[in-house]
Amino acid sequence: QVYFNKKPKDLSVIEAAVLVGMLKAPSAYNPVRNPNDSRSRRNVVMYQMVKNNYLTQNQFNDLSKKETVLHFTPISHTEGLAPYFRDVLAQDLKRYFKKNPKQDGSTYDIYKDGLKIYTTIDSRMQRYAEESVKEHMSTYQKLFSNQYKGSDIFEKGIGKERLALAKRNSDRYRKSKDAGMSVSEIDNSFNTRTKMKVFSWKGEIDTIMTPIDSIKYHMMFLQTGFMAMDPENGFIKAWVGGIDFQYFKFDHVNINTKRQVGSTYKPVLYTLAIDNGWSPCISVPAGTVTIGNWTVKGSGGYKSLKKCLATSDNGCAAYLVQNLGASAMVEMGERMGIQTKLPAYPAISLGAGDLSLFEMMTVYSCFPSGGIRTEPIMLTRIEDKNRNLIKLFVSKRVEAFGNNTAYKMIDLMKGVIDPGGTGNRLKRNYNMGDLQMAGKTGTTNKNVDAWFMGYTPNLVAGVWVGNDEQFLRFRTTYLGQGASAALPIWGNFFQKVVKNPEFKYIEEAKFFTPSD
What is the model's pTM? Predict the structure, then answer.
């Protein structure tokens, strides 16, 4: 692909000989950098074909005189599968090797030292994840953008402030300042129409617009984060950190990217209740609850814990935290894998805390694995250029709670996707076969963040959808809720997985039965 823009089966004898010849010394026999040496080496390879009766002498005589015709198409780091994952991985590797140098004290160069780096990514699942993001987000973006047609959102208030900040942080602004341009000259340049390329869901577009309009245009795009992992070994199977790495490099999966998690946090509170002997069938009041100066309005009446979670009733959650304590709730979250230090406030029970998708994946790994917290890992091993093992990676697994509690929580979260649950469209709109699954929707105040966290017996996946600029949000809960904005990516992904016969084991897997 790089040198001839072809698949292996389409290579000519000359092209194949060039590539085989490079094996001995890829740099020395590079046909771009060293064409003469490459040609000589190519001919050596073809003469070996003569000696082994794959070419005749006449064929060799003819081919050896011909030039090598290249179609050089170097692959950009912004292209290919999992660009966000690869970018985060590169940064993690650099930090690792800085702390773990070679025996001579020098630092490994991840690009030049011939390291063999084995990741956990499953290329098929990664492709399904990227396809699912594109299918949903390209359609949903239209609904989001239509809300703001004819709007003056960037002309006043927070919108005006954020636009000005984005302008000052742009490469164009910094380069203009470095070039000595005055403020008025810079302002004029940002309001002058110019040729440029912009992102679109139909592909990159060549257009003419002012730089300030370009900033507004790109600020309007919804972003997403998606991750899938094996809850037993922690292997990250798919990672999509945003909608397009070339234009939007900010990653929305890694542990440093945090947004309010909404009701996807509630299973932490319910786990605390179940672990303290509360039955899924026990009825609790779902009315108004006041704790200090914090008041929550519920739906009223009594509901079983299972119904409370299925309908994501805030009154039930407030009642639970009132009885169990905010400190105990936060402590349970830490046992389940939350590394962020959350304040022990009752409002955390409704998902008021900012957490990363990466952390939430660890939390949700506890359920299908029987109460064992499994930390996600990106790597299986690293070898040097001589295939000597440098490091073997294994996920850290710690018991967060008993498997009886996990079993009951799975049953509670099955209710979320059953009829009457907030995520019921998962079964209604997607063909999952006999796939066993459970999960939780999440929607934050004013529809700023939409979440869906879900799992099967052997695969956990999580989705966040929102705008990097939190003042840009859905204006209706119908569109902005987790079940509408985030769940479809999860549904699309698993629908593709179960259609692949190679993943039959995922569809056929059953949730565990507790040992006691």
Answer: 0.87
